[in-house]
Design goal:
Strand order of the largest sheet of chain A: 3-5-1-12-9-10-11
Shape of chain A: globular
Radius of gyration of chain B: 16 Å
Order of helices and strands of chain B: EEHEEEHHHH
Strand content of chain B: 5-15%
CATH architecture of the largest domain in chain B: Orthogonal Bundle
CATH topology of the largest domain in chain B: DNA polymerase, domain 1
Keywords (chain A): Molybdenum, Oxidoreductase
Radius of gyration of chain A: 28 Å
Number of strands of chain B: 5
Number of helices of chain A: 22
Structural class of chain B: alpha+beta
Organism (chain A): Sulfobacillus thermotolerans
Protein name (chain A): Carbon monoxide dehydrogenase
Oligomer: heterodimer
Shape of chain B: globular
CATH class of the largest domain in chain A: Alpha Beta
Number of strands of chain A: 28
Number of helices of chain B: 5
Helix content of chain B: 25-40%
CATH class of the largest domain in chain B: Mainly Alpha
Pfam families (chain A): Ald_Xan_dh_C, MoCoBD_1, MoCoBD_2
C-alpha cells in the first residue's frame, strides 16, 4: 500500500454531501416539533418599557410566548469562557432574553413558539414592545471617550478589561533614529458561514435528559456552559452537531437562542426548533475584528527594526461572547512582532463594550489583526528609510538557525525557515522584472503594485497549562478513541468537531497509514457528546494538530496491544515482531505473519490471548500539546489600480505556505484558497458600517460585499515543509493561514501601486470610491483632472 | 391551495398556504432537505434548483408558481451513476462544508446544459449568483471544468458503444 498520508484522497464526507444527504441542523424534523421565532430589538440601545405577548398568543398556531421576565429566574446569565489575567475584567450579565434594557440591534426581547415556522414569524410580528430609545456608541475608540453612552451602567468607561504585555519600550523610541507611527482601522467583518445558525431541542421527561442539535464548532464546550446556564447536569445533556455548514469562528459561542429553545423544549415538553434568517445572522451572530490600533515602530536608518509598540481599542460588542476576550489579547498581542526578530515589543489592549453585535473569533482570530499591522508597518518603515520592503524583510526576518525562537513576549516559535519560503515565492514572481514593468507602466499612466506578507502565526490551540495561564476557562487538549471491530474495520471517535475542513477523510488517512487498514474501512465519528467522552472542538487551526495527534497516540496503543496478540500467536517474543502495512511478521521471516485484521479478531474472540490481557481492541488517548505550532510563509499580491475609477484588480496572487507535514494536499490547498478569499475580502470588499444610532447599515448580502468567483484570478500556491518538532505528526495547521497572510499583502500591493500619488495608507476595505477619492485629493490622475 | 408538481420524476400534490415558497415546499412538503436556505434576499444561491430545465433560486419562486412544473433538486441529479457535476465536484474538491454545494452543482449543471464548453471566465460569471464562503471558488471552477470533461468522455463512450 502506498503512503496514505500525503495523498490527495477524495473526501469521504462528500459521498453524502454531493447527493444532498447532509444532515444539517435545520434538516431535522421531529414528531410534534414546534418552531420558535425571536422578537428582536430594532434599537441599539433602549429601555424596555413594555413587552406584551398577549396579542401573539391569540394568533393561529401560536402555542406559547415568553419574555425575559419568564426566563430570568430559571435561566442563568451566559458567561464568557475567557478571562485574561491581570486585566481587571468585568463580565457584564448577559441574559438570554433582555429584561429591562436592550444593548444592540438584534438583542432578543421575547420568543414566540408556534406550530409552523410561518406562524411563529406571524406571532413575532404581533408582539407589542415599547422602547425608550437611548443614545448608542458603536466605535471602540469613541466608547472610551468621556461622556460616551454606557453600555452597562456599572462598567465605567465601557472598559471590560485593560490588558498589557511586553517590556518598557519608551527608551528605545526616545533614542531611535527612525520612528514610524500609524493608526489602523481593522474594520468589523461578518463571518457569514453559508449555513445560518439553527438549534433543535428535545426534552425526554422519562430520563430527564435534554438533547440539543446545534450548529456548533464545539459541542462539549456548549454542554459545559449550558449545564451551568440551564441547571441541567452535564450527564443529562447531549449536544449534537452532525453536518455544520461552515462557521469560521461564528459557531464557537454559546448563544442566547440555543439556551431559549432548550429551556422552552423542557417547559413545553415538545421539541422546539429555531433557525435564524440571514438578517438575524447579520445582526446577532458574532462578528469579527473591529480594532482601532495605534502603532509605532522604532528602527535604524539602515533597516533594523528595534521595537514595536501597539495600543488597541478592541470592540467586543454589547456582551462578552464565549471566546471574545481571548481574541484581541492572547491571540493578538503576543504576536505583534510577526516573523521579525524585533528585540522589544509591547502591546496594550482596551477591551471595549459598545452597542453592537458581540464580537468573537473570526478566521484567524487576533492573528490577522496582528499580522496586518506588522506587515503594513514594515512597508511604511521601508518607505520612511527609502529602502525596498523586500530588503527590510530580509534584514529583519528571524533567521532559520534561530529556532526555536523566543519572541519578546515569551512565545517559543517551534520551527521555521522564513527565508526558504520567501525564496520559493521569488522563484514564482520575478521581482526585478516586476519593478521594471511597473516603472514602464507608470510612464504610461498605468499603476501596478506588489505587496508582500512574510507572515507567521500561532495555532494548534494549544497547551492546556498555557490556556489556563492566559485565562481560558477550559483545556485545549484533544481526545481520540480508535475502536477496532472484530472484522478489522475501525471507528474513530474524535473530540474535534470539523464542519467543512474534511477530517472525516484526513483522520482516516492517519489511521490508514498507521494501522495499515484501507481508508474505506475507517469511519470517523465527531460532534456528539453522547458518543465522544470529551473534546474541545474545532477552531484555531487545532483539529489536525491536536485532534490528529491524539489519534496518532491512540493508534500506538492499538498497535502495541495487537503486536502482543500477534507475537503470542506467532509464538515469538514481542520484540521479534515487526509491523508494516497492516501485517505483523517475525523479523527475518516475512512468511510467518498475522494480519492486523486477524489480530483484531483474536482480540475479540479472546480464545487465546496472552496471559492477563483484557479482550477487545481499542485505544483511547488524550493529547495535550507542549506548545503551539507556528505556520509561516510568504504571500505576494500583484494588483493594478485604475486611477480613473479607483478600481483595484487583483492580477496575481502567490501563496507559499509552510504548514509542516501535509496529510492531504488537495484539502490543504482548499483551506488556503478559502482563507485567501476571506482575507482578500477584508482588504478590498467587506466591512460593517453602523449609523450613529447603532443601526447596522450592512445587514444583508445586498449591502455587505461578499467576495464572488469573478473577483479572483487563479491562485498560485506552493509549499515548503518544515515539520513541527513537537507535534507527533509534524503538522502545523492550515485553517487560518490564508486569511491571516493575505489582507496585508493586498493592501501593501495597492499602496505600492498608489505610491506615485503620495498615498501611503488608506483604511480597508479599499473600495473604488475610497481609492479614487484618495487619488483625487492628491491632485489626481491626469485624466481625472481633465474631466473635472 | 392545491399544488401539483413533478419533483425528480415523482408527482407530488400538496395543499399549501399561498405564501409558501418553492424552497419550503421542497424541504417541508416533499421532504427533500438537500436544497438549502442560505439567505432571505435571493443572493446566496444555495437554494438553486432546476425549474423546467432553468436554474432558479427556489426562495424566489412561490410554490404555486411551480404548479405543473418539472423540478430537479440535488437529490435528482444522480441517475444510476453520479452526475458528471457531482463527480467533478468530488474529484476536484469543489466543496467543503457542503451547504452551498447543491446550489453550486445545479448552477453548474444548468451552465453545462446551455454552454457545453465554457471558458474559465464563463464559469466564474455563471457563478455570480452563488456565494460560497469555504472554497474560494477556484476548486468549484475546476470541478465544473472536470464535469465538462466527464460529459465529453461519457458521450464518446456512448458513441463508441453504439458503433460497437
Amino acid at each position: 500500500m502506498a503512503d496514505v498520508i500525503g495523498s490527495a484522497l477524495k473526501r469521504h464526507e462528500d459521498v453524502r454531501l454531493i447527493r444532498g444527504k447532509g444532515q444539517y441542523t435545520d434538516d431535522i424534523k421531529l414528531p410534534g416539533m414546534l418552531y420558535a421565532g425571536i422578537v428582536r430589538s430594532p434599537h441599539a440601545h433602549a429601555r424596555l418599557v413594555k413587552v406584551d405577548v398577549s396579542r401573539a398568543l391569540k394568533m393561529p398556531g401560536v402555542v406559547a410566548a415568553f419574555t425575559g421576565a419568564d426566563l430570568k429566574d430559571e435561566v442563568g446569565f451566559i458567561p464568557t469562557a475567557w478571562i485574561p489575567p491581570d486585566s481587571d475584567m468585568k463580565m457584564p450579565p448577559h441574559p438570554a432574553l433582555a429584561v429591562d434594557m436592550v444593548r444592540y440591534q438584534g438583542d432578543g426581547v421575547a420568543v414566540v413558539i408556534a406550530q409552523t415556522p410561518a406562524q411563529a414569524r406571524d406571532g413575532v410580528d404581533a408582539v407589542e414592545v415599547e422602547y425608550e430609545s437611548l443614545p448608542a456608541v458603536t466605535n471602540p475608540f469613541a466608547a472610551a471617550q468621556e461622556g460616551a453612552p454606557l453600555v452597562h451602567e456599572d462598567i465605567a468607561g465601557n472598559v471590560a478589561f485593560h490588558w498589557k504585555v511586553g517590556g518598557d519600550v519608551e527608551e528605545i523610541f526616545n533614542r531611535a533614529e527612525v520612528v514610524v507611527r500609524q493608526e489602523f482601522r481593522q474594520q468589523r467583518l461578518v463571518p457569514n458561514a453559508m449555513e445560518p445558525r439553527s438549534a433543535v431541542a428535545q426534552w425526554n421527561p422519562a430520563t430527564e435528559e435534554l438533547t440539543l442539535w446545534a450548529t456548533t464548532q464545539n459541542p462539549h464546550i456548549h454542554r459545559l456552559l449550558m449545564s451551568g446556564i440551564l441547571g441541567i447536569p452535564e450527564h443529562k445533556l447531549r449536544v449534537v452537531a452532525i453536518d455544520v455548514g461552515g462557521a469560521f469562528g461564528s459557531k464557537i459561542s454559546c448563544y442566547p437562542d440555543e439556551i431559549i429553545v432548550s429551556w422552552a423544549a423542557r417547559r413545553l415538553n415538545r421539541p422546539v426548533k429555531w433557525t435564524e434568517t440571514r438578517t438575524e445572522n447579520f445582526t446577532v451572530t458574532s462578528h469579527g475584528r473591529d480594532h482601532v490600533q495605534e502603532v509605532a515602530l522604532a528602527g535604524t536608518k539602515d533597516g533594523h527594526i528595534e521595537a514595536i509598540r501597539v495600543k488597541t481599542y478592541a470592540n467586543l460588542g454589547a456582551y462578552l461572547s464565549t471566546a471574545a476576550p481571548g481574541v484581541p489579547t492572547i491571540l493578538f498581542g503576543l504576536i505583534v512582532n510577526g516573523a521579525y526578530a524585533i528585540p522589544e515589543a509591547s502591546a496594550e489592549v482596551y477591551g471595549m463594550l459598545t452597542h453592537t453585535t458581540p464580537v468573537d473569533a473570526y478566521r484567524g482570530a487576533g492573528r490577522p489583526e496582528a499580522t496586518f499591522l506588522v506587515e503594513r508597518m514594515v512597508d511604511l518603515y521601508a518607505h520612511a528609510i527609502n529602502k525596498d520592503p523586500l530588503e527590510v524583510r530580509n534584514i529583519n526576518l528571524i533567521p532559520a538557525e534561530a529556532f526555536p525562537y523566543t519572541n519578546p513576549f515569551g512565545l517559543q516559535y517551534d520551527s521555521g525557515n522564513y527565508q526558504g519560503a520567501l525564496a520559493k515565492a521569488l522563484e514564482i514572481v520575478d521581482y526585478a522584472a516586476f519593478r521594471r514593468e511597473q516603472e514602464n507602466l507608470r510612464q504610461q499612466g498605468k499603476y501596478i503594485g506588489i505587496g508582500f506578507s512574510t507572515y507567521v502565526e500561532m495555532c494548534g490551540l494549544g497547551p492546556s497549562e498555557v490556556a489556563g495561564a492566559v485565562g481560558f476557562q477550559g483545556g485545549l487538549w484533544e481526545s481520540a478513541t480508535v475502536r477496532v471491530h472484530p472484522t478489522g474495520k475501525v471507528t474513530v471517535f474524535t473530540g474535534a468537531s470539523p464542519h467543512g475542513q474534511g477530517e472525516e477523510t484526513t483522520f482516516a488517512q492517519i489511521v490508514a497509514q498507521e494501522l495499515g487498514v484501507p481508508p474505506e474501512d475507517i469511519e470517523v465519528v465527531h460532534g456528539d457528546t453522547s458518543k465522544i467522552a470529551m473534546g474541545w472542538g474545532t477552531y484555531g487551526s487545532r483539529t489536525t494538530v491536536v485532534g490528529g495527534a491524539a489519534i496518532h497516540l491512540a493508534d500506538q496503543k492499538v498497535i502495541a496491544k495487537a503486536r502482543k496478540i500477534a507475537a503470542h500467536k506467532l509464538e515469538v517474543g514481542e520484540d521479534d515482531v515487526e509491523f508494516e502495512q497492516g501485517i505483523f511478521s517475525v523479523k527475518g521471516l516475512p512468511a510467518r505473519a498475522v494480519t492486523f485484521q486477524e489480530a483484531a479478531l483474536d482480540a475479540y474472540l479472546a480464545w487465546s490471548l496472552p496471559a492477563g490481557m483484557e479482550p477487545a481492541l481499542e485505544g483511547t488517548a488524550f493529547y495535550n500539546p507542549e506548545n503551539f505550532t507556528y505556520p509561516f510563509g510568504t504571500h505576494i499580491a500583484i494588483v493594478s489600480v485604475d486611477p480613473d475609477t479607483g478600481d483595484v484588480e487583483l492580477m496575481r496572487y502567490v501563496a507559499v505556505d509552510d504548514v509542516g507535514v501535509v496529510i492531504n494536499p488537495m484539502l490543504v490547498e482548499g483551506q488556503i484558497h478559502g482563507g485567501l478569499v476571506q482575507g482578500i475580502g477584508q482588504a478590498l470588499y467587506e466591512g460593517v458600517e453602523y449609523d450613529t444610532n447603532g443601526q447596522l447599515m450592512t445587514g444583508s448580502f445586498l449591502d455587505y460585499a461578499m467576495p464572488k468567483a469573478r473577483f479572483f484570478p487563479k491562485f498560485e500556491t506552493a509549499h515548503t515543509t518544515t515539520p513541527s518538532p513537537h507535534n507527533p505528526l509534524g503538522v502545523k495547521g492550515v485553517g487560518e493561514t490564508g486569511a491571516i497572510a493575505s489582507t496585508p499583502a493586498v493592501v501593501n500591493a495597492v499602496m505600492d501601486a498608489l505610491a506615485p500619488f503620495g498615498i501611503q495608507d488608506l483604511p480597508m476595505p479599499l473600495t473604488p470610491r475610497k481609492v479614487w477619492q484618495a487619488i483625487a485629493s492628491k491632485g489626481g490622475h491626469m485624466h481625472v483632472h481633465d474631466a473635472i | 391551495m392545491s399544488v401539483t408538481m413533478t419533483v425528480n420524476g415523482t408527482t407530488i400534490t400538496r395543499s399549501v398556504e399561498p405564501r409558501t415558497l418553492l424552497v419550503h415546499f421542497l424541504r417541508d412538503e416533499a421532504g427533500l432537505t438537500g436544497t438549502h436556505v442560505g439567505c432571505d434576499t435571493s443572493q446566496c444561491g444555495a437554494c438553486t434548483v432546476l425549474l423546467n430545465g432553468d436554474a432558479v433560486k427556489s426562495c424566489t419562486v412561490l410554490a404555486v408558481q411551480a404548479n405543473g412544473a418539472e423540478v430537479v433538486t440535488i437529490e435528482g441529479l444522480e441517475q444510476e451513476v453520479l452526475h458528471p457535476v457531482q463527480q467533478g465536484f468530488w474529484e476536484k474538491h469543489g466543496l467543503q462544508c457542503g451547504f452551498c454545494t447543491p446550489g453550486a452543482m445545479l448552477t453548474a449543471s444548468y451552465l453545462l446544459s446551455t454552454n457545453p464548453h465554457p471558458s474559465e471566465t464563463d464559469i466564474r460569471d455563471a457563478l455570480d449568483g452563488l456565494l460560497c464562503r469555504c472554497t474560494g471558488y477556484e476548486t468549484i471552477v475546476r470541478s465544473v471544468q472536470r464535469a465538462q470533461e466527464i460529459m465529453d468522455e461519457r458521450q464518446t463512450e456512448e458513441r463508441e458503444t453504439k458503433i460497437g
